[in-house]
Amino acid sequence: xxxxxxxxxxxxxxxxxxxxxxxxxxxxxxxxxxxxxxxxxxxxxxxxxxxxxxxxxxxxxxxxxxxxxxxxxxxxxxxxxxxxxxxxxxxxxxxxxxxxxxxxxxxxxxxxxxxxxxxxxxxxxxxxxxxxxxxxxxxxxxxxxxxxxxxxxxxxxxxxxxxxxxxxxxxxxxxxxxxxxxxxxxxxxxxxxxxxxxxxxxxxxxxxxxxxxxxxxxxxxxxxxxxxxxxxxxxxxxxxxxxxxxxxxxxxxxxxxxxxxxxxxxxxxxxxxxxxxxxxxxxxxxxxxxxxxxxxxxxxxxxxxxxxxxxxxxxxxxxxxxxxxxxxxxxxxxxxxxxxxxxxxxxxxxxxxxxxxxxxxxxxxxxxxxxxxxxxxxxxxxxxxxxxxxxxxxxxxxxxxxxxxxxxx
Length: 409
Prior knowledge:
The protein is globular and about 55 Å long. With 409 residues, it is an alpha+beta fold. It has helices at residues 32-40, 77-92, 123-132, 137-140, 154-168, 171-175, 191-198, 218-233, 272-292, 295-298, 303-316, 325-330, 340-350, 357-369, 372-383, 387-403, and strands at 13-22, 46-49, 52-56, 62-67, 97-100, 144-150, 180-181, 184-185, 252-255, 260-267, 321-322, 338-339. It has a single domain (13-397), classed as Creatine Kinase, Chain A, domain 2, CATH 3.30.590.20. The model has no long low-confidence stretch (mean pLDDT 93). The strands form three sheets. Strands 1, 2, 3, 4, 5, 6, 9 and 10 form an eight-stranded antiparallel β-sheet that branches. It has a two-stranded antiparallel ribbon with strand order 7-8.
């Protein structure tokens, strides 16, 4: 997003993060600075690539691709990202490296050595590292998809923010892609989000319940969320380096400087085709709630109640049983026990006018075959629960990314 003000669902801003790994061993390669230098001709933290841009992240083995400015539609946006991926992979051939998708490296141990971005003004990264130690999985081993949705005024902010917090509870069920950490199945399909919630527990108010609080306007957000956070971190942030709205680590954060809300809890998928389809479903259902329901504003659910559903989806994915009748009422569904898969199917159907048919076809495949984590675990359990199997699986994922195709069983 930029400083121009856009109304609800008129534009989208998307960010996709990928690991840089050795093409054969799949071990991480901390060379993002070299790739950006080759693209730009000199060291930089961002390069424009036609419809998208490439930029650095906290660690040198991760590169971010993002829309080069707000985009009016999600249709064929996966093609733009795919073109950028092909271009970067072509450069990576010189290093015998490639981009690898999925939300976490399956056997990386950050304690064995991680290199942080070391160019330009590093004060923000260095401050984070001093306070929280950025060598853990939640800092150095995570790749996510960020969705930026705009609002034009307080009325739109009120509706958008509070619809997002309801839909957030279901996102891990659809988008989980991180069942493996340090070479083992963790028991959670979205392990990245377990680390996300614990990243900054030294100062708990920064991430809160991950699900953001219900707020009535931007002033209320400032008073109830941002001000307490700034006050809490002040003793550790003597130079006021982190006293900005992006310090907020809830799963969706208001970015008032660009009049948008950024959803941050979606695991990156195996290819842009899958990412954009999931984004289309999330955005379409949020829009459906805003335009066709009001209970989520009139009788808002607590963060704790939404967090319980969210936590179950992290572990169980699409098989999660949604039994909270209040929640089902909030999303305008029958108040009987439904699986997360059924909830997604029903909500996509209700929001179908806002979701392009091409994205609906991809979503049908994801919902019928399982989220990416479920598909990976099924093969892992079938073919051998060891590093050799993981290597085979993630080599396959690299091929999916290069070809922009779904990972199939």
